[in-house]
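Exercise 7. Given the components listed, write out the predicted structure of the assembled complex. Treat all entries as one system.
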Amino acid sequence: MPAYAVIGGQWGDEGKGKIIDYLAGSVNAVVRYAGGNNAGHTVVNDKGTFQLHLIPSGICWPGVYGIIGNGVVVNPDVMMGELDMLSSRDIDISRVSISERAHVIMPYHIVQDRLEEEARGSSAIGTTGQGVGPAYVDKVGRMGIRVGDLLDGEDLAPKVERALAFKNALFTKIYCGECLSLDQVMSKCRDWAEMLRPYVQPTEQIVQDLLDQGKSLLLEGAQGTLLDIDHGSYPYVTSSSPSIGGACTGLGLNPQAIAGVLGVFKAYSTRVGSGPMPSELLGQGAEDLREKAHEYGTTTGRARRIGWFDAVAGRYSVLVNGFTGLVLTRLDILDGFPSVKICVGYQVDGKDIDRFPSNTNLLEECQPVYEEMPGWDEPTASATSRSQLPKNAVAYIKRIEELMRCRAQIISTGPRREETILLEPVIV
Ligand code: IMP
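Answer.
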């Protein structure tokens, strides 16, 4: 049996956690491949509401394995905190494993993230401040500390010492900040080694073994394609690859194992942090929608920026990921709007821009071209079948499918697992 990827099509926060929880009952494992605890996935099911940042969102299903792959960067305190929370709520955590190749978010990465953001001043990216970017920088710079290194005992100290000497020079000489003590960092590492040891595994082998045994997997995306380090609105991006390529490198997964790539999109757009967002709504309209939808970050509590559905950016996301189906979430939030808009093109100085530009300054200047459609008064909230949807909501979905050139497979009409319309089978 194959692997199915669930990937954010926008700027993250599309509701992937709910969709993964919904689908996870039909698979044997949910595998996270990128990002760190900058992600926040909310899952509402028969056991209650769970806010997860690292542990894969399928963990609430009995018998489903939760695997954290090599492409993830891990703050062990956050991981252990989440495991304790799950365990205290009677979720079996013995099915969780983490790659020995995953990189560790060290205490100095968190300090560095904050100092760098302060130094950027008005060009700040608006990072989540969790040290994710600096941990990936060190990974690529070949001075990262991996989960396997933590367990290495005596080999660890020289690696940490080397990295910390460099960081302390950076903090004091460039940022006029304070040094971190080697003893404190090493003591943290020793505690982490003991806490993580039972969960550390060669996860690429586990994933392959599951596939060889005919089991099926969900690949859990975090963040979204428009935040991808390569394909997003650079430099206002995260430091990993949330799009489909990241799933292969972030797990050691053979691409031929991937049978489906599901693109998750909100029925409108949101973005946290800085950077261009052509269909952004400002003023009271945005305020009303933000309050109705409670659009505040799960990780930072920051107010999310709000916009209409952007089909230009969406089509680009389909191109980058090869989505085999779409999931449209939070359709219910648009209930009661007299009309709804879709951004179908961009213009700069009256000239049409028909694709998502790589140039961030150009993207910043793009003015949205909207198509306006009649809204619907009847609720879509909690609908569980297509026949319960008002005709104008069906027309809205159909227009998005046409513009994106991709079929919708799932519509989400509320936060709970059962508030879902399965239009087409996804896991086959
Ligand atoms: P970082 O990933 O913390 O370095 O933040 C880089 C950018 O990605 C910032 O604009 C963040 O707000 C954004 N970002 C990171 N993770 C998420 C997420 O899970 N949802 C939405 N935005 C995110």
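Discussion: The chain has three domains: 3-101+201-262, 103-196, 265-422. Residues 11-13, 38-40, 125-128, 130, 132-133, 222-223, 227, 236, 238-239, 272-273 surround inosinic acid (CB under 6 Å).
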